[in-house]
Structures are given as structure tokens and as C-alpha cells.
């Protein structure tokens, strides 16, 4: 007897998944045992790129999660509600779940995984982080014997695509965003991509797996790429860096009982392995003991790549359903229940790049140095290379400093009469 799927959503990811399942020859033989039994959409009239019997497609999503014939629910509709309620209802009905929905998992993961453990079903989410890159399963299985201390990722395809084209072609932010939307990379509301929120959801999920504790999303610091300008891209290039939106989770340097979990555009040294990850590609660098460094690289968004991850999760569940055991597999289920302690961003120890526009007068660099010195901020380099109209442009790169102290120094600097503005402040890896 085949395994019956109920699929919620037939957009970019749903269509890619159906295409993959309908083209099973030459792939894993278990795929041929899967039946696309029901598919839920919003509109029946929309033209579709896949052919399915009309009786399979419905707008009644509740009827899918309540259908006793459905073995596995595949949630690829996105959004918070009704996705959350439908997932919970499917779990209550004893169905395993595959989801690509990082937004729902990052917010409702505790509720969803608790319900799944109680019901004895699995919730699989490989597609939720890094699109097609296998990273969830390695963290849950192959890497789980390591003590991980840092996860650093480029985990949003849309912003990496935008930054890459801004850097290589000097393109305009809004034109490139439109291309990312056309290519199916961006979220329904691309604000989630551009403002770092999608990457925030993803690093919360990665941190919970890597550090074995639940993460409250409100503790994740998120900054997006809106403020990244062509001027900063040019300075980064001159100084030997590229700008990447990084999602980072690590043990806090000065208090290892706490984690630092954050997303922000970052100056990445050109020699760093993440500096060469371009376009829609994602990469996740995991560092731990005893493995050292391991990096996962691949397409982070798009129909085919994400369908690969969704379908591999379906396959794992088909295999679990076919095994004759009812005992839960601890490598598939979620095992942590405690919340990790997250340090506020003010406690972060990092280097900074800051760009100042100042009056063109003698002694400004000295005044900046004095303010930084007053707050224990040590400067790695300070250069005045150009002008913006009448104003001199001064660029500072610091050594490692506690963010709170750096911000105090900036507050003092802002009060100097010679300072016009501080157009950019970016962290340096
Ligand atoms: N696109 C990507 O590259 C990736 C996406 N994801 C995640 O996958 C999920 C799906 O994304 P994507 O495929 O891009 O989204 P799309 O917007 O392309 O597709 C969403 C699908 O869900 C259906 N749908 C949405 N809301 C409802 C509703 N209330 N009732 C009925 N049907 C509904 C839509 O129906 P209709 O077609 O009728 O409008 C559509 O078929 C999201 O959680 C996203 O974050 C994860 C990794 C990569
Ligand atoms: N919008 C997301 C899609 C994949 O998760 C991205 O751009 O990475
Ligand atoms: Na993945």
C-alpha cells in the first residue's frame, strides 16, 4: 500500500515538490510508493505548472488535515495562520508533518514539537533552513556528537542575491529585489528577507539544534540590508572585505552560559570561506569539538532546491512508516525542552566598521580617537579618503570591543560639533 500525502500549497515549493514526485524514475525507489492524495490551494482557477486530477485539488485545507487516509501532511503554504492550526490539527490526527515554514517553526516550534512528541509523530523541516542544503538532518544526526560552539551562515538567498548583484554590477537595490521575487526566492512579503527576519527565524532554528535548547525569537537580534550602500560596498572592497548578511549563533565569548544569536550585515574578510558564497547560494559554517570546521553549501531558495529538501524529509517519513517499530526514533524527534539563555546585543564582543561625515577641519580625527579611547574602544585603522560634498568622510575599523561600549562612544561622538552624521555602522567578522 502506498503512503498518502496531503500537500498544503502549490506555489513555488509545492509545485517543485509535485514535479519531483511525478518524475520518480532514476531516484530513490521508495518515491514510487508515494501517492499525491490531496493538495490544498487558495484559488482553484489559477493556472498550474503541474497536472493533477481535479478531484485531488481543493480549497478546503481542513478536510486534508482531517482526512484519515492522509499519512503525511506536507505544509508548503507558508504564513503563520492558518498554517500553525493546520499543522497542529494534523499532529492531533496522528499524521507526520513535513514543513518548509521557518516563520511558523521559529515562533510556534515549542507548541508544535511538544504536540508532536505527545502524539508520537515527527515534524521534519529540512527545507526551512538553507533551502536544498542538508543542514537540519546533519545537525540532528551526524554532527550531534560534537560540542558546537559557533554556527555562522548565509541563510537568506534573496539578500545574498541582492548583495551579490549590488557588489558585482553596482545594481540598484529595488531592481534586484524585483528579480529575486520573479525567480521565486523571496517570501510572499519580501520585508521578511530584506529586514533580516527570515534569516532570524532560520538562525533561531539552527541554534536550537546546535545548542540543544529552545530559542525565544524575541531574543534574536535582527538587522537587515536596507542601510547597505554602494559607498560601504566600495569601502569594504578597498579594505579587503565583502558585505554579507550573516546569521550567527555562538557561545558568548565572555560568558559561555549564554548564547549570542543575531543577524546583521557584516564585513567578511575576503579570505573567509563565506566571502565567496554568491547569488542565491547559502552556506552554513559549523564549528565544534572535535570536528573543527564543517561547511554546508548549496542553493538556499528556489523551487527545485527546496523540493529536494521537502522530498527527502517525505522519504525519511516513508521509511519510518514502513519500519515495523512504534518506538520513536530519537534522531528524528525533537528532544530539547529548556530555553537557552541569550545575551543582549550590548554584550556582544565584535569589531566594527563605522563611517563618519564630518566638517573638514583640523583635529577631527583626534577628537574621534579621544571619544573612542574614553570608552575603551581600540582602533585598528582610521582613514579619511574622500569627501561627500563639503563634508569629509572618515572610516574607522575597531579591534574587538563590547558593543555597549562602542555605542556609548558613538553617542559621545554624535555630540561633537564637528560631526555631521554617522551614515553607517557595520560589524566586522
Ligand atoms: N520559495 C522558496 O525558495 C522557499 C520557500 N520556503 C518556504 O516554503 C513555504 C512556501 O513558499 P512558496 O512556495 O515560495 O510560497 P508561494 O506563495 O509560492 O505558495 C504558497 C502556496 O500556498 C497556497 N496558500 C497560501 N495560503 C493559503 C491559504 N490560506 N489557503 C489555501 N492555500 C494557501 C497558495 O495557493 P494559491 O496557489 O492558490 O495562491 C500557494 O499555492 C513558505 O513557508 C516559505 O517560507 C522555504 C525555502 C525556500
Ligand atoms: N525567502 C527565502 C526562501 C528560502 O528560505 C530566501 O530568500 O532564502
Ligand atoms: Na535545508
From TrEMBL:
PROSITE patterns: ACT, HOMOSER_DHGENASE
Key words of the record: Amino-acid biosynthesis, Methionine biosynthesis, NADP, Oxidoreductase, Threonine biosynthesis
UniProt domain ACT: residue ranges: 353-427
Annotated EC: 1.1.1.3
Top-level division of the source organism's lineage: Bacteria
Cofactor names: a metal cation
Pfam families: ACT, Homoserine_dh, NAD_binding_3
Catalytic activity: L-homoserine + NADP(+) = L-aspartate 4-semialdehyde + NADPH + H(+)
Statement: the UniProt record of this protein carries the keyword NADP: yes
UniProt keyword rRNA-binding, yes or no: no
InterPro entries per the UniProt record, alphabetical: ACT-like_dom_sf, ACT_dom, Asp/hSer_DH_NAD-bd, HDH, HDH_cat, HDH_CS, NAD(P)-bd_dom_sf
Associated pathway: Amino-acid biosynthesis; L-threonine biosynthesis; L-threonine from L-aspartate: step 3/5; Amino-acid biosynthesis; L-methionine biosynthesis via de novo pathway; L-homoserine from L-aspartate: step 3/3
Family: Belongs to the homoserine dehydrogenase family.
Name this protein carries in UniProt: Homoserine dehydrogenase
High-level lineage: Bacteria, Bacillati, Cyanobacteriota, Cyanophyceae, Nostocales
Amino acid at each position: 500500500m502506498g503512503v498518502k500525502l496531503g500537500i498544503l500549497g502549490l506555489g513555488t515549493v509545492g509545485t517543485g515538490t509535485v514535479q519531483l514526485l511525478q518524475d520518480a524514475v532514476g531516484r530513490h525507489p521508495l518515491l514510487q510508493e508515494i501517492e499525491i492524495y490531496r493538495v490544498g490551494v487558495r484559488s482553484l482557477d489559477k493556472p498550474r505548472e503541474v497536472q493533477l486530477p481535479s478531484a485531488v485539488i481543493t480549497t478546503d485545507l481542513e478536510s486534508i488535515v482531517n482526512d484519515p487516509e492522509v499519512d503525511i501532511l506536507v505544509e508548503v503554504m507558508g504564513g503563520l495562520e492558518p498554517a500553525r492550526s493546520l499543522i497542529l490539527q494534523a499532529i492531533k490526527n496522528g499524521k507526520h508533518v513535513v514543513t518548509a515554514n521557518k516563520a511558523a517553526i521559529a515562533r510556534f516550534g515549542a507548541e508544535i514539537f511538544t504536540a508532536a512528541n505527545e502524539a508520537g509523530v515527527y515534524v521534519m523541516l529540512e527545507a526551512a533552513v538553507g533551502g536544498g542544503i542538508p543542514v537540519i538532518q546533519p545537525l540532528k544526526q551526524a554532527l550531534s556528537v560534537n560540542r558546537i560552539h559557533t554556527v555562522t551562515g548565509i541563510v537568506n538567498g534573496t539578500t545574498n542575491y541582492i548583495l551579490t548583484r549590488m557588489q558585482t554590477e553596482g545594481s540598484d537595490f529595488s531592481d534586484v529585489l524585483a528579480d529575486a521575487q520573479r525567480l521565486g526566492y523571496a517570501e510572499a512579503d519580501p520585508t521578511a528577507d530584506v529586514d533580516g527576519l527570515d534569516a532570524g527565524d532560520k538562525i533561531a532554528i539552527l541554534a536550537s539544534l546546535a545548542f540543544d535548547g529552545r530559542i525565544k525569537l524575541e531574543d534574536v537580534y535582527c538587522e537587515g540590508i536596507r542601510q547597505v550602500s554602494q559607498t560601504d560596498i566600495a569601502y569594504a572592497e578597498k579594505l579587503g572585505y565583502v558585505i554579507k548578511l550573516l546569521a550567527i549563533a555562538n557561545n558568548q565569548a565572555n560568558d559561555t552560559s549564554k548564547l549570542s544569536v543575531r543577524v546583521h550585515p557584516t564585513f567578511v574578510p575576503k579570505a573567509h570561506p563565506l566571502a565567496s558564497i554568491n547569488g542565491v547560494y547559502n552556506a552554513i559554517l559549523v564549528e565544534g569539538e572535535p570536528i573543527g570546521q564543517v561547511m554546508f553549501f548549496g542553493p538556499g531558495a528556489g523551487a527545485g532546491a527546496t523540493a529536494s529538501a521537502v522530498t527527502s524529509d517525505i522519504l525519511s517519513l516513508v521509511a519510518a512508516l514502513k519500519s515495523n517499530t512504534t518506538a520513536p526514533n530519537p534522531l528524528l524527534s525533537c528532544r530539547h525542552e529548556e530555553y537557552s539563555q541569550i545575551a543582549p546585543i550590548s554584550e556582544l564582543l565584535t569589531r566594527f566598521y563605522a563611517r563618519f561625515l564630518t566638517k573638514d577641519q583640523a583635529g577631527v580625527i583626534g577628537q574621534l580617537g579621544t571619544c573612542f579611547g574614553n570608552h575603551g574602544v581600540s582602533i585598528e585603522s582610521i582613514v579619511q579618503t574622500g569627501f561627500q560634498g563639503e563634508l569629509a568622510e572618515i572610516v574607522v575599523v575597531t579591534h574587538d570591543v563590547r558593543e555597549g561600549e562602542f555605542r556609548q562612544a558613538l553617542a559621545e561622538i554624535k555630540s561633537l560639533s564637528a560631526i555631521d552624521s554617522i551614515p553607517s555602522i557595520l560589524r566586522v567578522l
